[in-house]
Write a structure and sequence with these properties.
single chain; about 500 residues; Growth Hormone, Chain: A; about 70% helix; disordered C terminus
Length: about 500
């Protein structure tokens, strides 16, 4: 005779409790375990993400490794180095145009994204091919060359790499949007951000080892090797990813003009507010990019060996942010609320950096650095996921290109403003123009960090109305009668 087990309300049996605990711990320990879908298996997705590794490698080489090599080993003036590094940012606004062109491309072969991915890859390869020789001429080691050849060739190399980088990343993200089902796009973009960060970390370590000891011949090998590796990685990434569509053969099909499509994307107050929030938040997290290491050395008197670990600390915070993002988004968390959490982490981060100087506390400095990585990761994933979600059918390239254009332009502008503000306010403070109290090296740095806090508050104001104020998780209806809760009850009450 079977015996029916009656479960007491509010006291689930132990087996169900253990199952929920194990499932929750699994998603916590492996936040990307559920990123694969039948439409986009994990192996195919990991192979596609290799384009982000090539982008990370190019970013580290152009912004990080060559920055030091040009100034220290090659003796190039710092202002000229800054000009060369900023050249790729000039092309950032064109990411929206590239994305739109890839949305509406008509190919005899039936491909839409693939031609632009290859175009970006070849531009990167061409820039890396001529870059080492251009830098050697720029340093003055080719006395027979005309004076204009070095700056012109170096500028062309950096422009080619920048154009290829922007094109590859914009169209690669659009291709990922095409392949991933709508419910998995947020997790896919988080994984792609993780691969970008891992590519930057691995490339920084490898380039550092390969260029020690430094020689011009070794520089040529490393940069051109990076160009060849870019070809290999991107070819592997896009192999058999995009299906050929015969419907794209017709050259007589109407194509929406860029201006009309862009106006539709940013139509209304909500669209403009979205782009404004991305720009403000990016500026808030980017003004300190070139100031963290000097702050640790000049203000906190930390040795070089300690300040060079800041990149690793930022990476650890970023990886933690990506893991948290994957976990929250898999549970239906609102994308703009996720970005707001990143802004709140940034407020704590820059407050810690400011108070690290009067407290002479390396611990506060390290904590602030970790929180910058965490907050920026949450903000990037939240806003990028929202851009992927709000892309209309066939406009993924335009939506992601616009996000990338705003983000890259705001980052470049913020880095420039951060450096100028630090130098100007720091010089005024050290000369006593701001009073004896502010005649300390931390004045310029603290001003930049304070401006970033103001920008973060402005970002919260801009992003607040975009967040969904109703819970995205289903809320069970409350029973009409409960002995322990007298009085009227609201059925299906919202958490907010």
């Amino acid at each position: 005779m079977s015996q029916t087990v009656r479960q007491v309300p509010g006291k689930p049996n132990s087996a169900r409790t253990k199952s929920r605990l194990w499932s929750g711990s699994g998603s916590l320990l492996l936040p990307f375990a559920s990123v694969a879908t039948p439409e986009l298996p994990l192996g195919r997705l990991m192979r596609l993400s290799l384009f982000q590794v090539s982008v990370g490698m190019a970013l580290v080489l152009v912004i990080g490794t060559l920055n030091r090599v040009m100034i220290v080993e090659l003796g190039v003036p710092a202002w000229l180095v800054a000009l060369m590094i900023s050249l790729p940012l000039v092309l950032a606004p064109f990411r929206a145009i590239v994305g739109h062109r890839s949305d509406t491309h008509r190919s005899v072969l039936g491909w839409r994204r693939l031609p632009y991915l290859w175009m970006g890859t070849l531009l990167q390869f061409g820039g890396f091919a001529i870059m080492p020789f251009a830098l050697i001429v720029l340093s003055g080691d080719a006395p027979n060359a005309p004076s204009f050849v070095g700056p012109a060739a170096s500028g062309l190399a950096f422009l080619l790499v920048g154009a290829g980088l922007h094109t590859t990343q914009t169209v690669g993200l659009a291709l990922a949007t095409d392949l991933a089902p709508p419910h998995a796009r947020s997790r896919v973009v988080t994984l792609l951000c993780v691969m970008l960060l891992l590519g930057m970390l691995g490339s920084a370590l490898v380039f550092g080892r390969l260029l020690a000891p430094f020689s011009e011949f070794r520089l040529i090998q490393v940069i051109q090797g990076a160009g060849v590796l870019t070809l290999v990685l991107n070819f592997t990434a896009v192999w058999k990813q995009e299906a050929r569509d015969p419907a794209r053969h017709g050259l007589s099909q109407p194509r929406a003009p860029f201006r009309e499509a862009f106006r539709g994307l940013g139509d209304g107050v909500r669209g403009k507010r979205r782009l404004f929030a991305v720009g403000l938040g990016t500026m808030a997290f980017s003004m300190q990019d070139v100031l963290l290491e000097p702050y640790g050395g000049q203000v906190l008197h930390l040795p070089v060996a300690v300040t060079t670990t800041l990149t690793a600390m930022l990476a650890v915070g970023g990886l933690a942010g990506f893991g948290v993002s994957a976990l929250l988004l898999s549970r239906g968390f609102d994308r703009y609320r996720l970005a707001s959490l990143g802004v709140l982490a940034g407020l704590l981060a820059f407050s810690a950096l400011i108070f690290a100087a009067p407290a002479s506390s390396p611990v506060l400095f390290g904590l602030g650095t970790l929180l910058i990585g965490l907050g920026s990761a949450l903000f990037v994933v939240g806003t990028l996921s929202a851009a992927m979600e709000q892309a209309r059918d066939g406009q993924g390239g335009l939506a992601l290109g616009t996000w990338g254009a705003v983000q890259a332009f705001a980052a470049g502008l913020a880095i420039l403003l951060g450096g100028v503000t630090h130098d100007l306010v720091g010089a005024l403070g050290m000369h006593g123009r701001l009073g004896a109290t502010l005649a300390v090296p931390s004045t310029g740095y603290g001003t930049v960090y304070a401006i970033e806090i103001v920008l973060l508050f402005a970002t919260l104001v801009a992003i607040g109305p975009l967040a969904g104020f109703r819970s995205v998780l289903p809320i069970p209806s409350v029973p009409a009668r409960l002995p322990s809760a007298p009085g009227p009850l609201i059925q299906g009450a919202s958490l907010s």
